[in-house]
Amino acid sequence: MRYKLFGIGVFLMLLASCRVKKEAGIEVVKLVETTQSWNGDLLPNYPKGKPEITVLKITIPPNTKLDKHYHTVINTGVLLKGELKVVDIDKNILILKEGDVIVELVNKIHYGVNEKNKPAEIIVFYAGEEGLPVTVKTKD
After folding, report:
1. Which residue(s) pair with 103 in the sheet?
2. Pick from 70, 26, 73, 65: which is nearest to 47 by CA?
3. Which of 11, 32, 71, 136 has its CA 20 to 30 A from that of 19?
């Protein structure tokens, strides 16, 4: 995990939670375990309705800025390829590199930008509620 340009305390908390467990040749690596999003905000309670899990593979072309948006549900992702910068409404910045994990913001406006010359590819897991959108675009 490479949390840059943001609180070292959050980075150290996440780093301390990474452990490798090996048993019978099987390796399990805990990538993250937290109650906070990447900028230190506490995660909200889960919705009370019928649970719905959504998993998306998102490819962001080179030199592309995503629209400002927010997520209505808890979500986390792993950057598979490339590099991605995430910026929240308070100007906190997170730089993700290949293999990095992000615990996304919930109900807080932010955007991502791929400033590099190759695509960024991320898998995102949303723990939501049936009928509730996972992402809402906002107007600039």
Report:
1. 76
2. 73
3. 71
